[in-house]
């Protein structure tokens, strides 16, 4: 094992976990956090300040820390073998004793998904609503952390009082139940943290914003507002969720053949709308996929969906004619193993879409998934399937606030300092310009990068330093840096192909064995022919080169590797990542014999 490998394993090995017997706040001895000794509120984004996803924020007051969210990022095809990313919590781990609590705002993956990876580094109490806890518990169970992490519900008591912070969960509408902004009181002023929200008076029971409380918060004074930037490109409010429901009620009856619909599994209101639309059209709603079934179960346990019409799980729907059901599945983001992907690839033996069938994408594209979804939809269109999306039909609305919503929010809570987050860099800067144009209570808007330490005091903000940050990827059973050599090597292989060479030279420097192989340069038959030509040429040239190079093994090894790679490039125009195993009988120099790659 190399020194780098050992360092990497040490860096990402899970720390020893203390197992609390109860969920009461843990007693800790606080230690000074260097660079945070100035008076005021300190804000640090470990993830989420520069793009959508990977949300994790820290607030530090008097050396006490609270953490908000621990989310995943959805990686694109640039990271072979990995679908999920998360922020590096190493900085927080170094000051674990100072962390008073982790607050999860809602149950979207980009806000809670990485909790099982991050909590062992924090080891603090966790607070969330019942609906969010319903999603956290199964995730912890996957990692054998159920009963270890101290979970606390805020449903009956939405204000959490800690040593240096009072944190209140304030209901605001998003695309799932029990979404919350956080109103955080400190001795240096109040913070309003609202990363996912919109204003929508849709009338759906579990989607509510507490407008009177927002106004009261503004009256109490807000020193810092940290807010969502995703929909800054939208000047006016998107349709209400109730309008989407009405549109689906009218749209679903128009289709006569097989009809599939997909939505975000967490969007309970949308799932309910699809179920109601199916019944209105005389179709049986069939629910496929554990994520949808699990979300429905959690919603019912929390008291939502009390009047939901009957639904059937896919495994019980064998006898229902395809034109008499609405097949509702997850996978709207093109996830590799999702139910929708299996349908599109023809791997679902019960549902096959073809000419005259239709599919409703009642969802939007999460940044990073554009290529996957475009490929999926093109494949469906090629098969003659009618693809219904929000580009042409009223089948989706966002859970994020537009400019009008942001204007109203700022008028309600009236902050003095603003830090826009949770959007791409363009939208974050748009929100800064827009907030300054509005004027009002705002004195300063700070655009911070992940890792920046922002000090806020008396209506003024300043970036006073930075802490180490990194983006990590979930790689099967391990978590590694997306900037690591492992990831760089995978990218090299993914884009340049791979070539494997094995050479054995005998006691008298004769070639005893030469093997050349690859699985991704050419198809098997063509590469076998190319390898045969290269091998014949090398068997002729190696003996004379051995003499020319004065029997020096390192130079001979380098010659063989470079020569074969050059011949492959000449034949294919590909410069493959080359792995070579070189062995000279009678030579035990480990720096020469063994494996190398270029």
Plain-language structure description:
The protein is of the alpha/beta class. It has three domains: 3-235 and 398-472, Ribonuclease Z/Hydroxyacylglutathione hydrolase-like (Metallo-beta-lactamase, Chain A), CATH 3.60.15; 241-388, Rossmann fold (3-Layer(aba) Sandwich), CATH 3.40.50; 497-597, Ubiquitin-like (UB roll). Helix content is 31%, strand content 25%. The protein contains 16 helices and 29 strands. The strands form five sheets. It has an eight-stranded mixed beta sheet. Strands 9-10-11-12-13-20-21 form a seven-stranded mixed beta sheet. It has a six-stranded parallel beta sheet with strand order 16-15-17-14-18-19, with helices on both faces. A hairpin with a 2-residue loop joins strand 11 and strand 12. Helix 6 (211-220) crosses helix 12 (403-413) and helix 7 (241-251) packs parallel to helix 8. The longest helix is centred in the last third of the chain and has 25 residues, at 524-548.
Question: How many structural domains does the protein architecture include?
Answer: 3
Rg (CA only): 29 Å
Biggest sheet descriptor: 8 strands, mixed
> What percent of residues are in strands?
15-25%
Average pLDDT rating: 90
Which spans have pLDDT < 50 for at least 5 consecutive residues? 1-27
Relative helix content: 25-40%
Tell the overall outline: globular
CATH class of the largest domain: Alpha Beta
* Count of distinct strands: 29
């Amino acid at each position: 094992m190399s020194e780098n490998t050992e360092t990497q394993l040490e860096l990402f090995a899970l720390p020893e976990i203390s197992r609390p017997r109860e969920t009461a706040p843990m007693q800790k001895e606080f230690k000074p956090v260097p660079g945070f000794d100035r008076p005021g509120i300190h804000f640090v984004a470990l993830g989420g300040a520069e793009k959508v996803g990977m949300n994790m924020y820290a607030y530090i007051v008097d050396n006490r820390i609270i953490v908000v969210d621990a989310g995943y990022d959805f990686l694109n095809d640039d990271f072979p073998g990995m679908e999920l990313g998360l922020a590096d919590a190493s900085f927080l781990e170094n000051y674990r004793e100072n962390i008073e609590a982790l607050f999860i705002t809602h149950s979207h993956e980009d806000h809670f998904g990485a909790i099982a990876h991050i909590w062992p580094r924090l080891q603090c109490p966790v607070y969330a609503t019942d609906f969010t806890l319903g999603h956290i518990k199964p995730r912890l169970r996957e990692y054998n952390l159920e009963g270890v992490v101290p979970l606390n519900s805020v449903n009956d008591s939405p204000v959490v009082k800690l040593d240096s912070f009072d944190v209140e969960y304030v209901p605001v509408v998003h695309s799932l139940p029990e979404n919350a902004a956080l109103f955080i009181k400190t001795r240096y002023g109040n913070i309003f943290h609202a990363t996912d929200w919109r204003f929508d008076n849709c009338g759906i029971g579990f989607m509510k914003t507490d407008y009177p409380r927002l106004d009261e918060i503004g009256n109490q004074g807000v020193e810092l507002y940290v807010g969502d930037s995703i929909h800054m490109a939208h000047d006016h409010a998107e349709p209400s969720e109730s309008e989407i429901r009405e549109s689906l009620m009218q749209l679903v009856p128009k289709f006569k053949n097989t009809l599939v619909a997909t939505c975000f599994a967490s969007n309970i209101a949308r799932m309910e709308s699809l179920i109601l639309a199916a019944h209105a059209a005389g179709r049986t709603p069939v629910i496929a996929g554990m994520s949808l079934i699990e979300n429905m179960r959690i919603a019912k346990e929390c008291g939502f969906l009390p009047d939901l019409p009957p639904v059937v799980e896919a495994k019980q729907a064998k006898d229902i004619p395809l034109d008499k059901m609405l097949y509702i599945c997850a996978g709207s983001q093109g996830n590799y193993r999702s139910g929708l992907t299996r349908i599109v690839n023809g791997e679902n033996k019960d549902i096959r879409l073809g000419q005259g069938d239709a599919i409703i994408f009642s969802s939007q594209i999460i940044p990073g998934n554009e290529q996957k979804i475009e490929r999926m939809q093109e494949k469906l269109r090629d098969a003659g399937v009618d693809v219904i999306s929000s580009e042409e039909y009223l089948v989706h609305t966002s859970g994020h606030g537009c400019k009008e919503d942001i204007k109203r929010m700022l008028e309600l809570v009236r902050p003095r300092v603003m830090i826009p987050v949770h959007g791409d860099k363009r939208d974050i800067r748009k929100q800064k310009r827009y907030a300054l144009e509005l004027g009002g209570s705002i004195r300063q808007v700070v655009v911070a990068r992940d890792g920046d330490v922002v000090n806020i005091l008396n209506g003024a903000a300043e970036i006073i330093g930075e802490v180490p940050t990194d983006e990590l990827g979930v790689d099967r059973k391990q978590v590694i840096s997306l900037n690591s050599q492992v990831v760089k090597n995978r990218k090299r292989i993914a884009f340049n192909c791979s070539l494997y060479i094995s050479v054995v030279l005998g006691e008298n420097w004769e070639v005893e064995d030469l093997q050349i192989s690859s699985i991704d340069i050419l198809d098997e038959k063509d590469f076998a022919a190319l390898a045969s030509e290269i091998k014949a040429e090398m068997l002729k040239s190696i003996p004379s080169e051995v003499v020319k190079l004065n029997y020096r093994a390192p130079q001979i090894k380098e010659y063989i590797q470079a020569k074969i790679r050059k011949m492959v490039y000449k034949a294919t125009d590909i410069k493959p990542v080359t792995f070579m195993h070189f062995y000279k009988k009678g030579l035990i120099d480990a720096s020469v014999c063994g494996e190398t790659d270029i």
